[in-house]
Amino acid sequence: MTDHSLLQEEGMYSGHVGCPGCGATVAMKFALRALGEKTMLVIPACCWAIVAGAHPQTSLKVPVLHTAFETAGAAASGLRAALDMQGDTDTTVVAWAGDGGTFDIGFQALSGAVERNEDFIYVCYDNEAYMNTGVQRSSSTPFGARTTTTPGRGWKQTRKKNIVEALAAHRIPYAATASIAYPDDLMRKFRKAAALKGGSRFIHVYATCPTGWRVPSEMCIKTARLAVQTRLFPLYEVEDGHRYTLNLDPDPPKPVRDYMAVQGRFKHLTDADYEQIQEMVDEDWGLLKRKIGAFGNPDAA
Hints:
Blueprint lengths: L22 H13 L3 E5 L3 H6 L11 E3 L5 H14 L6 E7 L1 H5 L2 H9 L5 E6 L36 H6 L5 E6 L3 H13 L5 E6 L3 H4 L6 H10 L6 E4 L3 E4 L9 H5 L10 H25 L6
Parallel strand pairs: 1-2, 1-3, 3-4, 4-6, 5-6
Antiparallel strand pairs: 5-7, 7-8
């Protein structure tokens, strides 16, 4: 049993086994600070399954259900049903998965759960590859990145899947992006998601991986901030599948090269590659702005 008297502001113990500069651990720290002690986590196979550890040697102060790689959405649905049968409607169920367990292996269970509008928060901490098993590419890996399965001249030639738009297409009550470099925005979104009980909520958290991205650990937050400042990772919300709110508009934006040039996984890119990627980022930003103009609130929250 978890001693909830230990949980005041922080939901994590010190001394976890996350890599130095791990953005995923920063994300969990702020998420639990926002959610509070009445939280239960469902964690499939991912980096965080190792960081959390097994009971009683755990780095978390809230209950954790470890589950198989592909089953976070299904397991969270079952946990929510069990709590409801016990009359516990106060505890927030949170599925916490990496991009491999969300974009790829876990997408079927996630899509099924949100189509039923199950009452939980699904969080993808996105470090853009299968980092726990050796930095293999996922469908979250961005165009241009080298990984152990896209090495050398075989660097990834396809674009990153837009997971928020995929979830918004299910018409769930709430979907949002968040970044570890903007903790106030991140915590506000977690509190908002927790308050929207009765349906599925999805938060896509940008979480730097110094090991897989080949950046110094002290660059963790700066790298995440550059992703937002270059408009590569926009901060926005989608409510009920169609009402858009832009939370931050970097105007003028930094060139995307400023973000990519500090990372070893992009060191092979040429000037022509950077130009192509900049065009992709500008195209995606223009599409988002058109959606906000047509369906949402263009003002920052």
